[in-house]
């Protein structure tokens, strides 16, 4: 078993193939974190817990000297009100208004496999013995609260996940005010804080700043995980690179408000916490009830960011993304959004389909604008019935005709929204998220439905079910285009309004569950104004997520680079669009757009009628490339060779198959300079003793030459030009 407990020393040790995680039950029953890092042969680490008399740090009642203080010991789950002045993991308001909870070790169990927090997406065990779980139970005798800390260890994946369950075994009702999924203390602070920040159309840009004393946090209080901050943080040793240095990475399997925070204290130690954002959160726990948090995935790499990425990608491909889809080749789709926006009808769609079929496209996705009176973004959300002024032949017949052309069919929904003045809004104004006696803000001229209500979920489910069962629909694009304001729910009593945000997310997940249970074969692509809800929670349901509304190949370099740190390439929606690009006005070669879009689930977002005759051969090559490189890109190992964040010169990526016999190298020149420097790409991850033949030139190189000397990039590469090399072992 990869989890052990030493009764004599009261030390828990969790082992993966390459890592160990160690903590202990201390005097007074508190849990102290001892170690997370490279694999250790021993659990004998009690010596490392240094207890000293630190001035002004409180000692628990009954302490015989001044050396034991929660303010100092590295905690597994930090407490509020008992002298630990760093960030608390949990805060509970009891009936008398008191907020102290004193959680000490009660018992534990170790078992094979893992549980899943109720109603939430989570990682799963696939085979017997691929995962073991430790459930440590902490107790607060006064309130009767039990807190379960769950640690699931995936030895072969080098991953540990954590989540928490709080049970009220007391006689009083309490209010949870904060309940983090993870707390991790480090005995050092020489870390860089790495995260993925952004905005609409500029999602998941990598940022790196050194930790300083005090708190550094990223969060979302928008109701979605957000384009502004992805629920991912890595704490990397200063100087860590793609290949060197220690990196601790954390990713939160949740699609709503979150907080991730690193705090450096007076003793130069670091506390990292991650969980549901405590801002405006509370949860009533009546006697006998429980609350379960979303799960955090933890990855430790002693070999920089590349190893971290490989662990995340493999882990998500094996233990998070639906096994049904993860390795399945997704259809090359054409989406009519940038081709037509709202201005389309059945004939236009059929024309697109016919031309797309000739290109080699496999699916047509009918985007926003097919329902109600929707001819712009001011109207009709919630009215999920076909607009027969536009789809004159009816949906069933349209899909039949698309199928006859030889394409499958997908459709767009924005299930969580309602437009002012829509039929749904007129009928159920009370279903909007709103605060009584206050006006409602609009955003993209729309309101949000109260997804915490079962009747709302029922309505959306029923209307989507009717559409999806009315025709042969094989794909849904689930969009979400605004953040939440004036949050309040008519069905929750005043003292439970703090439950709204989390109940909203639970409602979204419940709708996903229902739809997928009814239509298990439908592929749902997640989307939120592009990539504003690109998180592991959505990935659990949607094996692919629209990465960004920005389809400009050059902007995509940064967006896809940042996203690739954590999320597998098979999850990233990426399309070739028309030029000048609709978001940036930039003109880039079609070849470059194709190479960049290969780094994701490939498709087109343009009117094929407007593809110039001379470009049609390039499209044919792109489609052939997608088929040829699909398995290598979707299932191989990704290496980031040149970062677009390091300079505005270029970006380069490499994929290596697991057997190391196939290699794809992509180089994109961003801006050329007069008298360009030489660029030689040193490849990574090859077998040094193998010989590789480059398809483009027929030249053969040994693995060690490719890795140590490298491949020359043509010096005259112009602005936005891309080159691609494919090598196979001979
Ligand atoms: C935002 C999405 O990201 C776009 O791709 C498109 O579907 C629009 N919404 C439609 O309103």
Short description:
This protein has 730 residues and is an alpha+beta fold. Helices cover 19% and strands 30% of the residues. Strand 2 and strand 3 (19-25) form a beta hairpin.
Could you list some keywords that capture this structure?
alpha+beta; 10-stranded antiparallel sheet; 8-stranded parallel beta barrel; globular; binds (2R,3S,4R,5S)-2-(hydroxymethyl)piperidine-3,4,5-triol
Walkthrough of the structure:
- The protein is of the alpha+beta class and 730 residues long.
- 19% of the residues lie in helices and 30% in strands.
- It contains 13 helices and 38 strands.
- The strands form 7 sheets. Strands 6, 7, 8, 9, 11, 12, 14, 15, 19 and 20 form a 10-stranded antiparallel β-sheet that branches. Strands 21-22-23-26-27-28-29-30 form an 8-stranded parallel barrel, surrounded by 4 helices. Strands 5, 10, 13, 16, 17 and 18 form a 6-stranded antiparallel β-sheet that branches.
- Helix 5 links the parallel strand 22 and strand 23 (408-413).
- Helix 4 packs parallel to helix 5 (395-405) and helix 10 (553-564) runs parallel beside helix 11 (590-597).
- (2R,3S,4R,5S)-2-(hydroxymethyl)piperidine-3,4,5-triol is lined by residues 337, 367-368, 412, 479, 481, 527, 529-530, 546, 549.
């Amino acid at each position: 078993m990869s989890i052990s407990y030493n009764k004599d020393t009261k030390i828990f040790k969790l082992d993966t193939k390459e890592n160990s995680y160690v903590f202990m039950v201390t005097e007074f029953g508190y849990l102290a974190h001892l170690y997370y890092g490279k694999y250790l042969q021993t659990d004998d680490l009690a010596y490392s817990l240094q207890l000293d008399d630190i001035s002004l740090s409180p000692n628990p009642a009954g302490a015989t000297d001044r050396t034991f203080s929660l303010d100092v010991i590295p905690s597994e789950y930090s407490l509020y009100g008992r002298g630990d002045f760093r960030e608390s993991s949990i805060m509970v308001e009891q009936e008398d208004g008191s907020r102290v909870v004193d959680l000490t070790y009660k018992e534990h169990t170790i078992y094979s496999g893992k549980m899943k927090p109720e109603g939430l997406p989570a990682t799963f065990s696939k085979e017997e013995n691929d995962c073991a779980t430790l459930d440590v139970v902490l107790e607060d005798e006064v309130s009767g609260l039990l807190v379960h800390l769950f640690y699931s260890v995936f030895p072969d994946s080098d991953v540990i996940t954590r989540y928490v369950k709080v049970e009220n075994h007391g006689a009083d009702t309490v209010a949870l005010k904060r309940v983090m999924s993870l707390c991790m203390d480090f005995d050092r602070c020489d870390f860089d804080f790495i995260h993925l920040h952004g905005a609409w159309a500029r999602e998941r840009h990598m940022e790196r700043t050194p930790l300083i004393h005090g708190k550094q946090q990223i969060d979302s209080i928008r109701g979605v995980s957000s384009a502004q901050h992805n629920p991912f943080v890595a704490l990397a040793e200063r100087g860590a690179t793609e290949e060197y240095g220690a990196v601790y990475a954390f990713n939160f399997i949740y699609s709503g408000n979150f907080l991730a925070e690193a705090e450096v204290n007076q003793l130069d130690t670091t506390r990292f916490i991650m969980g549901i954002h405590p801002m405006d959160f509370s949860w009533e726990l009546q006697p006998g009830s429980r609350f379960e948090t979303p799960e955090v995935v933890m990855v430790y790499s002693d070999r920089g960011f590349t190893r971290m990425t490989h662990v995340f990608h493999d882990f998500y491909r094996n233990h998070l993304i639906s096994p049904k889809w993860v390795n399945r080749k997704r259809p090359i789709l054409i989406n009519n959004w940038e081709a037509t926006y709202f201005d389309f009808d059945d004939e236009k769609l059929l024309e697109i389909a016919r031309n797309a079929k000739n290109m080699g496209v496999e699916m047509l996705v009918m985007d926003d604008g097919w329902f109600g009176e929707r001819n712009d973004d001011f109207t009709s959300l919630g009215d999920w019935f076909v607009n027969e002024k536009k789809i004159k032949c009816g949906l069933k017949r349209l899909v039949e005709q698309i199928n006859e052309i030889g394409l499958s069919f997908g459709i767009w929904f924005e299930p969580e929204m309602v437009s002012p003045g829509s039929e749904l809004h007129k009928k159920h104004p009370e279903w909007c998220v709103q605060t009584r006696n206050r006006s409602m803000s609009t955003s993209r001229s729309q309101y949000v439905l109260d997804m915490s209500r079962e009747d709302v979920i029922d309505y959306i489910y029923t209307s989507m079910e009717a559409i999806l069962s009315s025709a042969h629909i094989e794909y849904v694009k689930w969009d979400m285009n605004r953040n939440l304001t004036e949050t309040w729910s008519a069905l929750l009593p005043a003292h439970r309004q703090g439950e709204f945000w989390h109940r909203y997310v639970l409602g979204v997940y419940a709708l996903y569950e229902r739809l997928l249970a009814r239509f298990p074969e439908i592929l749902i692509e997640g989307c939120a104004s592009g990539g504003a809800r690109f998180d592991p929670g959505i990935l659990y349901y949607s094996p692919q997520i629209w990465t960004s509304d920005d389809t400009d190949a050059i902007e995509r370099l940064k967006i896809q680079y940042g996203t690739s740190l954590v999320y597998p390439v098979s999850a990233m929606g990426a399309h070739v669009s028309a030029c000048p690009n609709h978001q940036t006005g930039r003109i880039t070669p079609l070849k470059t757009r194709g190479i960049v879009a290969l780094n994701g689930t490939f498709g087109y977002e343009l009117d094929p009628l407007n593809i110039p005759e001379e470009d049609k051969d390039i499209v044919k090559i792109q489609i052939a490339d997608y088929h040829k490189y699909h398995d290598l890109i979707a299932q191989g190992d990704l290496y980031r060779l040149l970062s677009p964040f390091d300079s505005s010169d270029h970006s380069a990526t490499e994929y290596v198959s697991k057997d190391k016999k196939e290699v794809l190298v992509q180089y994109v020149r961003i801006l050329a300079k007069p008298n360009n420097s030489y660029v030689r790409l040193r490849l990574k991850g090859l077998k040094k003793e193998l010989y590789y033949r480059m398809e483009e030139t027929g030249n053969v190189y040994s693995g060690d030459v490719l890795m140590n000397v490298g491949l020359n990039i043509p010096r005259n590469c112009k602005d936005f030009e891309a080159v691609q090399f494919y090598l196979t072992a001979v």
